[in-house]
Amino acid sequence: MMTEYLTWQSELATQKFAERLAQKSLLRSANIQLSGDLGSGKSTFTRYLLRELGVTGIIKSPTYAVVEEYRVVNSSTEQKIWHFDFYRFNDPSEWEDAGFKDIFASEGLKISEWSEKAVGYLPTPDLHINIQIQDNDQRQVTVNAFSEKGRLLLE
Ligand SMILES: Nc1ncnc2c1ncn2[C@@H]1O[C@H](COP(=O)(O)OP(=O)(O)OP(=O)(O)O)[C@@H](O)[C@H]1O
Ligand SMILES: [Mg+2]
Q: Is residue 9 part of a domain?
């Protein structure tokens, strides 16, 4: 495992990190988990990332639907993106019924907010990003790579 500690002094730093990740071709099929305080910036980070990957239009918060799916075409190949928010995930039967298991087994980018609410269901991610709010409103960020792909995404 590899760990990177970052300080995001403002949303601009969040945006820069998202832009850095979006440049990696390995992101095409990766599993990224986000955890941390309410309002710490998980959705903000995800929106910057999705925009950078070419998602246009509204990026809804999937709090109620649990998942929102996007398809973008990049250099004539289709990129699938699933944005999960497990904040209200409390029905384990949903895991298989809603096809989440199949999604995580398939190609595409899976990005999950509130991954801690689906512990035991979610497979080990390539990257886990934990965001904590500091007193001065800066964000203290811990990024863990759990796979070779995750490690390469951080290079
Ligand atoms: N790096 C940052 N520094 C300061 N403020 C930030 C930073 N990133 C995001 N914010 C602000 O903090 C808030 C974060 O809201 P956001 O919805 O992204 O959080 P969240 O972690 O997804 O919350 P929830 O737990 O409800 O899903 C927004 O108002 C955003 O403008
Ligand atoms: Mg959110």
A: yes
Whether 154 maps to a domain, the answer reads no
- Interval 103-151: pLDDT, tens: 999 999 999 999 999 999 999 999 999 999 999 999 999 999 999 999 9
* 40 ligand 1 Cβ < 6 A: yes
Residue 67 CA to residue 46 CA, distance in Å, equals 13
Q: Is the CB of 43 under 6 A from ligand 1?
A: yes
Q: How many domains does the chain have?
A: 1
Measured from the CB, is residue 41 less than 6 Å from ligand 1? yes
Ligand 1 atom with the smallest distance to the CA of 13 is 1
**Residue with CA closest to ligand 1 atom 16:** 41
- Contacts of residue 100, defined as CB under 8 A and 6 or more positions apart, other chains included, come to 66, 67, 84, 94, 121
Q: CB of 81 within 8 A of CB of 111?
A: yes
Indicate whether 155 belongs to any domain: no
Query: What pTM was estimated for this model as a whole?
Result: 0.96
The reply to whether 108 falls in a domain is yes
